[in-house]
Amino acid sequence: MVSIIITTYKESETLSRAIQSILDQIKKDYEILVVGPDRETENIVQGFSAEYPEVKYLKDAGEGKPAALVKAFTHARGEILVLTDGDVLIGERSLSHLLESFKEPQIGAVSGRPISVNPRNNLWGYWSHFLTFAAHQMRMKSKKFPCSGYLYAFRNNIISQLSKNLLAEDGVITEEIRSRGYGVVYASKAVVLVKYPDNLNDWLKQKIRSTGGYAQKSEIIRRTRTFKQELKSGLVLFFTYPKTIKEFFWTFLLYLTRIYLWLAIFWNIRIKNKKFSDLWQRVESTKRWHQN
User: For residue 49, how many other CB atoms are within 10 A of its CB?
Assistant: First the structure.
């Protein structure tokens, strides 16, 4: 049995489509647990539950994604847990591709592949395509990659507890699974479509949260992703990924902004030690799919 866990908060524009994309490709031995603190989420799930009793709503206390996941873990009945979000869209047959690897008993977790739906012909869209391609290349070549929080799966009962203050819980879960002797693999055909930020304020909010999780003190993933590693791996892509002079210029701006990002992470997380609630800020532009 498979338990699909969707964490969400006030994502009424995208949640119904996210649930339907799962229902379209999984027909038996499954449950969909939608975890969220808001009434909008509850109403959407109740609409599905009338026809699909396997779709269930779990109300959480609104303490962040790690706390919501722990709540879902205590209710999940599946042998395999699939984790995703309420503002993304799982590609056709992607769940089958994601679950195939679990035929091998030594495999503990499988990561999907995020694909940007933003148009590449503007700065923010180009950045999203560059970074998702860089992540794809890293997962294809490296043995120490983190699973993508947008779509990944792991065996139930390996992870039961998480700190509520984790910014990169997907990275922590990945390394915890590796530390217990399981393999982690990448299913590049398990595609998940993602809307990325379309302005600098939202971009920084998202990246300080996701990248900054690797700078938190005393966590298992510390030093698995650093500025030095990013600079080294990104050097080749700087010269090979852009196709036009404009894209070379956008790539140069991206590298300058990533330097600023790492400085902001160092200041906010390592020096000021800001609280989880201050760093985990909602990113509105990732919810507005209709603009593309």
Answer: 15
Do residues 170 and 224 make contact, with C-beta atoms less than 8 angstroms apart? no
Give CATH superfamily name and number for 2-291.
Spore Coat Polysaccharide Biosynthesis Protein SpsA; Chain A (3.90.550.10)
What are the pLDDT digits (tens) for 147-171? 999 999 999 989 888 888 888 899 9
Bridging pattern class, strands 88-90 and 55-59 = unpaired
H or E stretch at 292: none
pLDDT value at position 268?
84
For the segment 181-203, what is each residue's pLDDT rounded down to a tens digit?
A: 999 999 999 999 999 999 999 99
CA–CA separation, 106 and 96 (whole Å): 18
Query: Can you tell me the distance from the alpha carbon of 93 to that of 90, in angstroms, rounded to the nearest whole number?
Result: 8
Is residue 83 within 8 A of residue 77, CB to CB? The reply is: no
Q: SS3 of 148, please?
A: coil
Listed residue (166, 116, 101, 176) closest to 146, CA to CA: 176
CA-CA-CA-CA dihedral for 8, 254, 148, 221, to nearest 10? -110
Q: Which amino acid is at 217?
A: K
Burial of 161 (0-12, 13-18, 19+ CB in 10 A): exposed
What does the alpha-carbon distance between residue 150 and residue 42 come to, in Å, rounded to a whole number?
Answer: 21
Under 8 Å CB-to-CB from 258, ≥6 apart: which residues?
A: 230, 234
- Cα 155 to the center of its chain, rounded Å: 18
Residues 6 or more apart from 2 whose CB is under 8 A from it?
Answer: 26, 29, 30, 31, 78, 79, 80, 81, 82, 95, 99
User: pLDDT value at position 291?
Assistant: 43
Task: Please state, in angstroms and rounded to a whole number, the distance separating the CA atoms of residues 262 and 276.
Answer: 17
Residue 221 has pLDDT above 60, yes or no: no
Element (H, E) at 144: none
Partners of residue 109 on adjacent β-strands = 154, 184
